[in-house]
Write a structure and sequence with these properties.
Strand content: 5-15%
Shape: globular
CATH superfamily of the largest domain: Type I PLP-dependent aspartate aminotransferase-like (Major domain)
Radius of gyration: 21 Å
Largest sheet: 7 strands, mixed
CATH architecture of the largest domain: 3-Layer(aba) Sandwich
Structural class: alpha/beta
Helix content: 25-40%
Number of strands: 16
Strand order of the largest sheet: 2-10-9-8-7-3-4
CATH class of the largest domain: Alpha Beta
Number of helices: 13
Number of domains: 2
Length: 378
């Protein structure tokens, strides 16, 4: 009898079948974590040009030099921090950035501090590597709370952040990051910060630990181009890390992917070369959706929520006494809307919440949100 590796046997992979089973075909799906907009035309243009030039061979493990330089220049321009090109690595999506970094940093049994509520992909990667995870809360009953680090293990190897956060849409403030960086410096810890939704904030940037003195030396930035260019299936992201960590990440990548998709790298490079002119309209669209969602959901008398500051999720807390999966099933039956239960998908601090993805056209989104309020307030 074939026996799978224990790390896979014991790996919990959540899915929405329990919620969406039997959903009518006209249900509105507000679970999908990808933009409903078409791909950035400049990325498409760059991909077509790369194909015409037969640029379909392996690139260097770390990605093409021109794109790494463009990312380094962009970080310098927006955050005032200099990166050498060998501190930038192109990866197979944001997930590739996450997993290769964790492979480079963690041994089995190492302790990791994880922002909570968490993105399940972060926890899943930590569990696959058999790290011991210790959460710290940044949201309670729909409202951001100040991170408390005093009870967390000082021997933890990493502190894993996500800003703008999935599922909450909230952005960590400079004062929060300063406190986290101080804790990390005291205990010789590395901060990982996933900024996959950075481009979908109002001004296209978020506070980062690298902005503080000594912060760059203890920070790994995990970036993604999937959301900002609407190319989630083309799998391209990046890591910006101190040199010695970047060397380890490159070694990890060489074992499972060799390089990111070559033509996608050239597509993203084309958008960078032309100044990413489509970002402002993208930001405007998702800002409008966040504001509409907040306005509609704020009508509810039995929920609490904060206005999301980036990305395309909103994460209201419901004081209705229902279990999260039960609430989500109710919305499928009566509102014909599919959402993601806060628990178990986003950990214990997700209890009582629903993650609602604002990834439908505005008129469809408005109607679905009104139905959510109508059903859950009745």
């Amino acid at each position: 009898m074939i026996k799978l590796a224990e790390r896979v046997i014991n790996l919990e992979v959540l899915n929405l079948l329990e919620v969406s089973a039997g959903a009518p075909p006209d249900c509105v799906n507000l679970t999908v974590g990808e933009p409903d907009l078409p791909p950035d035309p400049l990325v498409k243009e760059g991909i077509k040009e790369a194909l015409d030039k037969n640029l379909t061979k392996y690139t260097a493990d770390e990605g093409i030099l021109e794109l790494r330089k463009a990312i380094a220049d962009d970080l310098k321009e927006r955050y005032g921090v200099s990166y050498d090109t060998d501190e930038i690595i192109i990866t197979q999506g944001g997930a590739g950035a996450i997993f290769s970094t964790l492979l480079a940093l963690l041994n089995e049994g190492d302790k990791a501090i994880l922002q909570s509520p968490w993105y399940s992909g972060h926890l899943r990667a930590l569990n696959l590597l058999r790290a011991k995870t210790f959460p710290f809360k940044t949201l309670e009953k729909g409202i951001p709370v100040e991170p408390r680090l005093d009870s967390l293990p000082k021997e933890a190897k990493i502190i894993f952040l996500c800003s703008p956060n999935n599922p909450t849409g909230m952005v960590l403030k400079h004062e929060d990051l300063e406190k986290i960086l101080f804790f990390a410096k005291q205990n010789d810890q590395i901060i990982l910060i996933d900024i996959a939704y950075e481009a979908l904030t109002n001004d296209g940037k978020v506070p980062l630990p690298i902005e503080f003195k000594g912060g760059k030396d203890q920070t790994v930035i995990l970036g993604s181009f999937s959301k900002c260019y609407s190319i989630t299936g083309l799998r391209i992201g990046y890591v910006a890390a101190p040199k010695e960590i970047a060397v380890g990440i490159k070694k990890a990548i060489s074992t499972f992917s060799f390089c990111a998709n070559s033509i996608t790298q050239y597509g993203v490079l084309n958008a960078f070369k032309k100044g990413n002119p489509n970002f402002p309209s993208l930001r405007k669209e998702f800002r409008k959706r966040r504001e509409i969602a907040f306005e509609i959901l704020s009508k509810g008398n039995r929920l609490t929520l904060s206005k999301p500051e980036g990305g395309f999720f909103i994460f209201p807390y419901f004081e209705d006494g229902k279990e999260d999966v039960e609430r989500a099933k109710l919305l499928v039956r009566k509102a014909k809307v599919i959402t993601v239960p806060g628990y178990p998908f986003f950990g214990p601090d997700g209890k009582g919440h629903l993650r609602i993805a604002l990834t439908q056209p505005v008129e469809i989104l408005k109607e679905a949100l009104e139905k959510i309020i109508s059903v859950l307030e009745s």
